[in-house]
């Protein structure tokens, strides 16, 4: 296990999700001092404030995974020009009970891939808004709006040649952002 743990939150439950593939491929671009764990959000109940006093086991598991991490990496789909409900549900769960948020103060990176040409830009902007409220410092630049085109991934699931340089640079700057906030 690396010195730095990153909790990866994928905003799609789809079996063949491009965003999950992207998250897997990005993890391979990091040096071994970083470990990446995709947190499970698909089995969380729908958030209900009545349950704050007795959060479900799946919610406590999510919060523990987030607390164990030094940074967050959000890789999200865009649904109807915003973040998928499943991602917002997870964010809301881990933000509660009031005063016991698992998000506060930890550095994050946000990116995503969609079939549309805008490459999740609007979803990312909405996500940045939510994370600002939760006191999560998000890497501002570079932004990464990725369209799922032929060749984005190679046969082994790595980032394809055309996008490799850009995404390696994005990762390098994201990891430096995480380290800066830990220091
Ligand atoms: C309910 C729904 C809404 C969508 N809305 C958008 C959208 O606003 N913008 C966009 O670029 N793609 C949109 N798409 C297409 C997604 O980009 C595409 O399904 C993509 O594969 C989702 O990411 P995933 O592969 O990680 O699941 C939408 C798809 C669904 C199912």
Q: Brief overview, please?
A:
Helices cover 36% and strands 16% of the residues.
What does this structure look like?
β3, α3 (85-94) and β4 form a beta-alpha-beta unit. The two termini are 20 Å apart. The longest helix has 22 residues, at 161-182. With 183 residues, this protein is an alpha/beta fold. The chain has 5 helices and 5 strands; from the N terminus they run βαβαβαβαβα. The protein is globular. Helices cover 36% and strands 16% of the residues. It has a 5-stranded parallel β-sheet, sandwiched between helices. Bound molecules: flavin mononucleotide. Residues 12, 14, 17-19, 77-81, 114-116, 118 line the site of flavin mononucleotide.
